[in-house]
Specification:
The protein is about 40% helix and about 20% strand. By secondary structure, the protein is an alpha/beta fold. The protein is globular and about 45 Å long. It starts with a strand and ends with a helix. The chain binds 4'-phosphopantetheine (PNS). The site of 4'-phosphopantetheine (PNS) has 12 residues, from strand 1, helix 3 and helix 4.
Length: about 160
């Protein structure tokens, strides 16, 4: 049976930390689906289409990858996709409580799926989409934070809101 992984998130926007997780997870999944939550509680700055497009432009050269958006429960989406693995990145202990709660909820809702945590690359421990948004909005340099292919697009959007 093919191992299908889902890497869900808001990706508002994708960061180098997300990209690192995508690259590593794509090595142990036969197919990896990057799943962008459409209507995040976090009220994303980038539209669903923009977030998908920014990921698409960042992930060139990874063959076993699909990028989609989803709505509703992650556990249902994972079932619909015949996936068995939910991938999440862990940066620090502060991520843990929320991630633990989410993993247990998803296990209750879809016992067939396992959540697998990948520890962040040490270089990206501090990094988050909100840090990227804040730095870009205030005119700072985000070249180390986001893939080079999307830097300008992210800057243009954030400097004009
Ligand atoms: O990048 P994020 O914002 O930390 O990702 C959070 C995400 C999208 C994985 C999470 O909010 C999610 O799965 N939402 C879908 C709704 C859902 O399934 N909720 C119940 C599990 S907490």
């Amino acid at each position: 049976m093919a191992k299908i992984g889902v890497y869900p998130g808001s990706f508002d926007p994708i960061t180098q930390g997300h990209l690192d997780i995508i690259k590593r997870a794509s090595k142990f999944c036969d197919k990896l689906i990057v799943a962008v939550l459409k209507n995040s509680r976090k009220s994303p700055i980038f539209t669903e289409q923009e977030r998908v497009e920014l990921i698409r432009r960042s992930v060139t050269g990874i063959d076993n990858l699909e990028i989609e958006s989803f709505d509703g429960l992650l556990a249902d989406y994972v079932r619909k996709k015949d996936a068995q693995i939910i991938i999440r990145g862990l940066r620090a202990m502060s991520d843990f409580e929320y991630e633990f709660q989410m993993a247990l909820t998803n296990k209750k809702l879809n016992p067939e799926a396992e959540t697998v945590f990948l520890t962040t690359d040490i270089n990206y421990m501090y990094l988050s989409s909100s840090i990227v948004r804040d730095v870009a909005k205030n005119g700072g340099d985000i070249s180390e934070f986001v893939p080079a292919e999307i830097k300008e697009t992210v800057e243009n959007k954030l400097r004009n809101i």
